[in-house]
């Protein structure tokens, strides 16, 4: 009898893991054959062959009824692991362990009552899993300590923690959040808060948090970097906005501008994020909705200098919307390194030498990379040709060109229709309107109209060649950096950290429901956005802990799994009294994995109350 180790891998890109079986060899018809008699799972303790041998010795002693002597050199945890396997063996083969004596529980752990099963009730069931997880992570972040030093009393500090966790879990309006806290969730009880919540209370909590924004941001980021031992040398800067459902005529923040969600019919408010490589927000700002993207960089640099604990200069990663020549010059003058997408394209770039092939982070598409130093430029450039971007650009261009040509065909078809527009002046007016409608692609066409006696008889168009735009359609763009001699891989890896910004803003807007904004007062708008950012820091802390353990769930999936754990009150009628036992449900395996990865306990001590009959 031996324990067999089996190497497993679900796919070529998946992580390798090991499973273990208890195997017995027997001679059948003169041949030795091996038979699996018990599946042992994939406990990591069995990776060590010495541990496997110790577990095997205990199992053989139990199965073959050998003398039960606990070897001194077998650790207790391995012995208990072997006993658990033996229990599985007995259940599988429907056997009873006659050599073992069943002992009652210890007196201090046992409590016996005569219970009326017919009268047993389960009541006051509330959600517990996500609430219990968030409470423990907020304890690790020590935010209550920060709030107390900011001048909040104990009740106010705990109310603020409840508001942050509620925003992360429920992502609803203050009115609906108050209803959930009072009726559906155990979150308030986790903090010992017994009173009901109102939406006005939640408004005041948000205002109080925003009033201490600078102090909270500084404390929280320092705590996160210390807790997770993060290197603080890379800064990602980007800008986004969210829209309002009302016109917000009297607001100083809500202005009409370019909406990232293409809601140009609504006023928007702009917010910026200074984010590290792990997706944690170092600092944020809120601007009026018509603030141009490039004008926000100077404030970001000032915030970076005032909130940085180290004197080492950072590398700033940004997208093309911010990387203007003026902003790049500002960063060079300040001594910062930068990596960003160029707003300009170069017609002639040297690619005589071989291109470097690199896989993207997703491992599915390839890019072509080449470092070069253009004349007259103070920095280093890298040519990038992305197959994914090529397909995207060609698809967009094909769709836009098709719509434009369809409108041109309608104009030409009108030349031969009764009542159609044929006067040359009116035809050119129609062409002008169509070109304005399709301004992203109309500049690529040459249009000519044949006429006779002031009336159009035919119209032709031709697609013009444009090397710069053709480069874009091929998926070509350029990355600029202040590093003088970087390798293609090094520069590509640094630039790809900007995906953390995309992930951050997606979580803020979608998972945490930052958009749209319904508040009417500018103060409440700022408080709403800041509360969502604090909730994001909590969410990203949990997801970072899980990623470190190989669990890559998004936040919605985590909430779905954690929602399977509830807490309820069991009303147990006995012959002498009623027992009210407030106890969480036993978590399923997936919930236990999340708790374990986050370093949290999976339950809490039951609360018992007695009602004695009179």
Task: Provide a descriptive summary of the structure in words.
The protein is α+β, with helices and mostly antiparallel strands and 614 residues long. Among the domains are: 2-92, no CATH class; 337-481, no CATH class; 565-612, no CATH class. It contains 19 helices and 18 strands. The protein has helices at residues 49-63, 76-92, 129-141, 143-149, 154-170, 174-183, 187-190, 199-211, 213-228, 297-307, 325-334, 387-413, 424-437, 467-473, 488-495, 499-511, 522-548, 555-562, 589-597, and strands at residues 2-8, 17-28, 31-41, 121-127, 234-243, 268-275, 281-288, 315-318, 337-341, 356-359, 366-372, 380-386, 445-452, 455-463, 476-481, 566-573, 577-584, 607-612. The strands form four sheets. The chain has a nine-stranded mixed beta sheet with strand order 7-6-5-8-9-15-12-11-10, with helices on both faces. It has a four-stranded antiparallel beta sheet with strand order 4-16-17-18. A hairpin with a 2-residue loop joins strand 2 (17-28) and strand 3. Helix 5 (154-170) crosses helix 8 (199-211). The model is unreliable at 100-107 (pLDDT under 50).
